[in-house]
Amino acid sequence: MKNQESQTKNLQIKSKSKDEAIQQALKQLDIEEKDIEIKVIQNPCKGFLGLIGAKDGIYEITVIKKEEIEIAKEFVENILLNSKIEAKVKANKDGNLIKIDIEGKDATCLIGRRGETLDSVQFLTGLALNKINKDSHMRVLVDIENYRSKREESLVRYARKVAREVAKTRRTKKLDYMNPYERRIVHSALQNDKYVITYSEGTDPYRRLVIEYKK
Fold this sequence. Notes:
It is elongated, with a radius of gyration of 26 Å. β8 (196-201) and β9 (208-213) form a beta hairpin. It has a three-stranded antiparallel sheet with strand order 1-3-2. Strands 4-5-6 form a three-stranded mixed sheet. Residues 1-7 have low confidence and may be disordered. Helices cover 36% and strands 27% of the residues. By secondary structure, it is of the alpha+beta class. The chain has helices at residues 18-29, 68-82, 116-132, 147-169, 180-190; strands at residues 9-15, 36-42, 57-63, 88-94, 97-103, 139-144, 173-177, 196-201, 208-213. The protein folds into three domains: 9-63, no CATH class; 68-145, GMP Synthetase, Chain A, domain 3 (2-Layer Sandwich), CATH 3.30.300; 150-213, CATH 3.30.1370.50. It is built from five helices and nine strands, in the order βαββαββαβαβαββ.
């Protein structure tokens, strides 16, 4: 089947009907019907007068495990659908990173102030992956209309501007609260600066980055 990994479990069930076998499997495996395939091994036989020679059918249930990239993509698509937002969702995998790109001007409403809503969508997508596979080591990055690259460029310009100010005045500057992703951008932008050092203080979500003159 398309976009699916190899089967993870087979189960044979004896039942009077295919529908009954499906319900038994769903209850026993605690999964949804869309996550299984069913194959008829032996059709049920009602027998004479529904009694003599009656036999249950035998059904093979195959549990299908979807690829994590497909789970992440579908989760984001459902968020857009429930929010009544028309947009295209593209997903690709690079090592242990799944990147979800959302294309559509209507979707920009999900960015929020300084990307806070977008970060929430990304966090929830990661939780959805962990719920399916608790041993997953995949990380998720969700972006809308290239917001993150634009935000990164803006942060780098801002960081360098503040660094020049700190170098000139020799006065420590504390930046606004940032998420870990944004703090890493600033740290990286100034890590080789000859005049300033950077470090973080506080605890999330009120953790901020400090730019200090290098003595």
